[in-house]
Amino acid sequence: MAVDLQILGRAVKAAQYRQHRALDSRLASVGSTLAQWDAMRAIGRTPGASARELAAATFQSEQAFGTLAGRLVAQGLVDRRPGHGRRIEHHLTAEGQRMLTAGHEVADSVLAECFEGLEEDEREALLGLLRKLEG
Predict the structure, then answer these.
(1) What DSSP letter does each residue of the chain carry, written as one string?
(2) Residue 125: which residues within 8 A CB-CB, separation 6 or more?
(3) What are phi and psi of 85, to 5 degrees?
(4) What is the rounded distance in angstroms from the CA atom of residue 52 to the CA atom of residue 55?
């Protein structure tokens, strides 16, 4: 029997929605939102990255990421520094690193709950299939 692709697509979206709601709700306990934590996570992975690179890494437009980065700078979580040419580089401040670390602890807990219904080999299979779809 063929799988209805609309049902499959909706199931993926439902799992993502549940995960995002739980993350956003619980990240509030460390003073962050999911969007802020994701931006800091991207900056932490690639210190010195440009807004264009970070927008792509966080699935946002450059304009949306620029607005978010501006709020993170105003909160003292991120520094923007001149780079080569017109490039502006993004770096975490000590407070940004502290919040990122606290967010990692929250995310690990939330994601453990989200995937607790799967055995380890099922998690590995799911990750493999999702990476295959990414190309």
Answers:
(1) ----HHHHHHHHHHHHHHHHHHHHHHHGGGT--HHHHHHHHHHHHSTTB-HHHHHHHTT--HHHHHHHHHHHHHTTSEEEEE-STT-EEEEE-HHHHHHHHHHHHHHHHHHHHHTTTS-HHHHHHHHHHHHHHH-
(2) none
(3) 65, -130
(4) 5
d(Cα 36, Cα 127) in Å, to the nearest integer?
25
What's at 41, amino acid-wise? R
Spatial distance between the Cα atoms of 34 and 24, rounded to a whole number of angstroms: 5
Amino acid at 115: F
Each residue's pLDDT expressed in tens, for the chain with a length of 135 residues: 899 999 999 999 999 999 999 999 999 999 999 999 999 999 999 999 999 999 999 999 999 999 999 999 999 999 999 988 888 999 999 999 999 999 999 999 999 999 999 999 999 999 999 999 998
Q: Is 91 left (phi over 0), alpha (psi -120 to 50) or beta?
A: beta
Q: What is the pTM of this model?
A: 0.89
